[in-house]
Amino acid sequence: MMFSQSQKIVLLKHQNLAFFKELKNVKFQIFTIFALLLLLYMLWPAPSYVEDFSPLPKSLKSKEPGDTVQVPNIAAYFSENFRNSVIPYYKNEYQNLSRLPFPPLKLNHPPEFAYTAIRDQTPSTYLEELVYPLRDSLFINGFEPFYEDGRPKYKGATDIVVDDIFFKSKTIIRFYPSPAWAKFITWFGITLSLILLWKLSKKII
Questions:
Q1: Residues 19 and 77 in one domain
Q2: Does residue 54 share a domain with residue 34?
Q3: pLDDT tens-digit profile of 97-123?
């Protein structure tokens, strides 16, 4: 069957329209899958309280003021554990409680930030944050007056003594959970923003 030049042009236009329509449908499907996966990730079951996290191995739970009910979602432990064992322990604990196939991100903060992230007047030699973005985070504050070889970390370092027992470190953890409604609102805002940006980019282009 032979087509005239005008018929070929019309046919080509129809083919191009069909292609772009199909491409638009594919993009919509990809975006929908992405949005649903993001929502699933954000609403996936997670720990709710700091009590969900296990105490450090061979540790004594602190009953000092500010380490119990005075501050929400906080717990403190005296132990022989140093930073190189504390962080991996809680990183593994956090991932297991979150039941996600990947570990939380790890962020380092200056010890001075402990006054804000943990509580006021918190002694600190290191502060790290384990975080699942758009979900929740766990701050881990460590106070270690001495290095593992016994050398003092700062001038005037003194031993940690509780009930006549010597400890090498004090670890304070504070958990910041996010309620499901806040996660949903955040997800809705992200999704809506992406849709608006997509429409705006089409107008500009």
A1: no
A2: no
A3: 999 999 999 999 999 999 999 999 899
